[in-house]
Amino acid sequence: MPLSPPISSPTLPPTTQLRIELADRSYDIQIGCGLLDHPDAVACGARSSEALIVTNTTVAPLYAARLQHALAKHHARVCTIALPDGEAHKDFETLNLIFDRLLGDGFDRKAVVYALGGGVIGDMTGFAAACYMRGVAYVQVPTTLLAQVDSSVGGKTAINHPAGKNMIGAFYQPLRVIADLDTLDTLPDREISAGLAEVIKYGPIADDDFLGWIEQHIDALRARDKAALAHAVRRSCEIKAWVVGQDERESGLRAILNFGHTFGHAIEAGLGFGAWLHGEAVGCGMVMAAELSVRCGLIDATYAARIARLIERAGLPTRGPRLGAARYLELMRIDKKSESGQIRFVLIDAPGQASLHHADDALVAQVIDANTV
Ligand code: NAD
Ligand code: GLY
Q1: Which ligand sits closest to the CA of 167?
Q2: In sequence order, what DSSP letters do the residues of 274-330 get, joined into one string?
Q3: Which amino acid residue places its CA nearest to atom 5 of ligand 2?
Q4: What is the pTM of this model?
Q5: 202-370: which CATH number, 1.20.1090.10, 2.130.10.10, 1.20.1250.20, 3.30.200.20?
């Protein structure tokens, strides 16, 4: 087993391909510009006459026709469904609209489903694909920075339950990931910042040099410099591929990808899904988790301050909403990492290294009180 994720060169050719190695579930991630318009770039290799593009009402007018046109070379029938937009719609009702369409239009088990959109569409479409006729093939076509660096890769699919984030779902790997960097041109600034939270995450958990690179390029990333974005997406996917390749179903190592997420999911559920963007909640959650790492004696305060400063420079909130420590603790107990009601946090052990830890409620409450307004 390698000790650290392999490193790529920061100078990037226009299109690059990475591979997630998962035995018979291995697949490629394609990263480049202008991919959506090229039939060869969007080919998924499946021998299927039928495809359904699942997208939402925001992304459909921007990109669905282009993808549909490119896919027409590979499938005799390509249909599109545009779901309502937003985290608040990542639920059973919206999921069922996908099944209604698949069944209503007579899609059989050889159908290929394309998830065109951000993490909400990707997670929901992946889960629909995992369930429909006990599993059909799907392809991730992520169009947000967050989805390109994280959610489209690794096969976690889910919907929310009112009691907790991503509580109903399945591990189900896509056939392929096609990340067209040009789609980031139309993303609102707030969504770029949200995506940067998940990019920053990879530094403290796996690659301290990458954290330094992000610090140097944060303004270029916010300004959507294509070379900077290409490197950020590629390095993030490399690290994620390295982690998922070792621990697909999160029996251990994969949990590090949840740095900041325990606090973050509590913010999202506590305020109601959609009030804060997922990336905003994760960014703020990383500030809290870094401070908890300091209070547990794992890292020094200067490293935590460095992480907090970068999150602030990414345009993300660093203080959580004041829901009260008791409410945070209650929400955090409903977490997939909890064991017998005991919360487990991803904490930083050293720069570029993280693992799961228990922490005293009193210590956690101190962190919450000091970091909420
Ligand atoms: P999102 O899917 O809600 O997309 C953000 C917004 O951007 C939406 O309004 C969307 O319509 C819009 N949008 C998407 N692409 C666009 C484009 N190119 N131009 C203009 N607007 C565009 O949010 P997200 O941040 O992409 O994803 C967050 C979700 O991902 C959360 O539900 C989170 O739980 C999930 N997630 C999953 C994993 C995983 O491993 N499966 C990892 C991280 C996050
Ligand atoms: N985003 C967390 C994971 O994929 O495991």
Answers
A1: 1
A2: TSS-HHHHHHHHHHHHHHHHHHTTSS-HHHHHHHHHHHHHTT---SB----HHHHHH
A3: 257
A4: 0.96
A5: 1.20.1090.10
